[in-house]
Amino acid sequence: MGIAGRFAGYRAQAESDAEATPSFRYWPSTGGNITYFKTALWLHTLEKWLGWSTLQQAMSRYFDDWRFRHPAATDFFQSLNEAAGRDLTPFFDEVYRGSNTFDYGVQLLTSTPAGSGRFRTTVVVRRFGEATFPVDVLTTFTDGSKQTERWDGVERRIIYRYDTKVRARSVQVDPNRVLMLDVNYTNNSRTLQPRADEASLKWSLKWMAWLQDVLVTYAWLV
After folding, report:
1. Closest C-alpha to 190, from 132, 118, 134, 111
2. Which residues of 138-156 are buried (b: 16+ CB within 10 A; e: fewer)?
3. pLDDT above 70 for 26
4. What is the pTM of this model?
5. Interval 45-102: pLDDT, tens
6. Is 180 within 8 Å of 39 (Cβ atoms)?
7. Minimal CA–CA distance to 106: which of 21, 182, 6?
């Protein structure tokens, strides 16, 4: 199953149980989505966050240290800490010991004239979920220039202001999609440019796919 399928399965049960819950105490139907799908997503997140070489080193160390033995989850976490060279406990507290969801999004984007041919841009990024994770915030301006901020994601919201010669065009949270556990990617970006053509094309394609399914079903029935 691909990432999209795992995400859909995890999202359906995201807050049902913490992964550390003993399997016999899981809420019915939660086990597979949390144990397998959530784990796959947070491992992908670690790979993007720390880099494949670091994750590979951690996995190799874990295998060498614990083969033919009976490791616990904390032993795997310790291998990751050692390979990363830092304490990743806050991350494991969120993804393994907790059941809070990650959801970062753009709350506000404005870019207005500030006089003397300049523009004042205000970006407000919000943590809608309860779980925390560091994310990048990318603001793109109409001349193609970009400004990237690194936010630790702990506070409920953060505000960035820019005084530039051109307007802002768009803002995006987690532009590289590092946080694979974000349960709502639809609020991760906002633009000040009309996108009616893109929206109409998207919905036209959806309706065409629906109509095709209906026709195929009808042809099978007759």
Report:
1. 111
2. bbbbbeeeebeeebebeee
3. yes
4. 0.83
5. 999 999 999 999 999 999 999 999 999 999 999 999 999 999 999 999 999 999 999 9
6. no
7. 182
Q: Which residue has the tokens 């042809």?
A: 219
Res 143 pLDDT > 60: yes
Is 16 within 8 Å of 30 (Cβ atoms)? yes
Which tokens sit at 1? 């199953």
CATH of 3-95, one of 1.20.1250.20, 2.60.120.10, 3.40.50.620, 1.10.390.10: 1.10.390.10
